[in-house]
Design a protein that fits this description.
The chain is an alpha/beta fold. The chain contains six helices and eleven strands. A six-stranded parallel beta sheet has the order 8-7-6-10-9-11, sandwiched between helices. A five-stranded mixed beta sheet has the order 1-3-4-5-2.
């Protein structure tokens, strides 16, 4: 399979033309991935454009790719959004990486009541930037044409507001309805994953009262790092993406 890279914009890219990788992306292509002249590559802008071409010039500062084909992919619909509670260590980051590879369309950090990790002030900015970097690299690995957005952190109150407009699913090991039985209704799906210890009873009640649905993922209790990705795999099948 051809190597895949990202550029900031491919709006002006046309078949027969040249698209250039610069900065860190060029260095990654030339030094880390050892791209060679004449090698086939694909290039995307993360907003639906996929270019297929051949490397014409390769240096750590600049990589030129001659475009052989340009295809524009529509954004997936309905969208799958992951509300990932902040977790200690790198567990939330592992969830973000896997969720991106598996096809999530947006990721939202959630400061849940049981979150050990706390994002406040500058830490929230750096945390979001860190997640965005993880998402970008995971999207390249998966050759995704659309790179998911990482939204600003939200509170439980903000989640409750969102539950009124979108189909919100709460992963809850005490729920009676299995996620695998879900019948899509055309609305965007907002999947909520709690931190270590799960979603608190107060949060479950508040979100359910706002319109969210409790869903059982399976008979085992998964870590916060694996629950979201596992649920996204189930939803991808239900939505016909897989």
């Amino acid at each position: 399979m051809a190597l895949h890279f990202l550029v900031e914009s491919a709006t002006d890219a046309v078949e027969g033309g040249v698209v250039s990788l610069t900065g860190a992306e060029a260095k990654h292509a030339a030094v880390v991935r050892r791209l060679r002249v004449g090698e086939a590559v694909t290039v995307g802008d993360g907003r639906g454009v996929r270019l297929t071409g051949v490397a014409e010039e390769v240096t750590p500062a600049r990589v030129d790719v001659r475009i052989l084909e340009r295809v524009v992919h529509e954004a997936p619909t309905p969208r799958v959004v992951l509300i990932q509670a902040l977790a200690k260590g790198d567990r939330d980051e592992l969830a973000v990486q896997a969720a991106c590879e598996l096809g999530v369309d947006e990721i939202v950090p959630w400061q849940a009541s049981r979150s050990v990790s706390r994002w406040e002030g500058a830490k929230a900015v750096k945390g979001r930037e860190r997640w965005a970097t993880i998402v970008r690299e995971a999207a390249k690995q998966a050759h995704r044409t659309w790179v998911p957005e990482v939204a600003p952190p939200v509170s439980t109150a903000q989640l409750a507001e969102r539950a009124a407009d979108q189909r919100m699913l709460l992963l809850d090991p005490t729920a009676s309805t299995r996620l695998s039985s879900l019948e899509p209704d055309g609305r965007d799906i907002v999947l909520v994953v709690g931190p270590e210890g799960g979603i608190s009873p107060d949060e479950l009640e508040r979100l359910e009262n706002a319109g969210a649905e409790r869903m059982l993922l399976g008979d085992t209790v998964l870590r916060t790092s694996t629950a979201g990705p596992a649920a996204i795999a189930v939803l991808s099948a239900a939505l016909g993406r897989w």
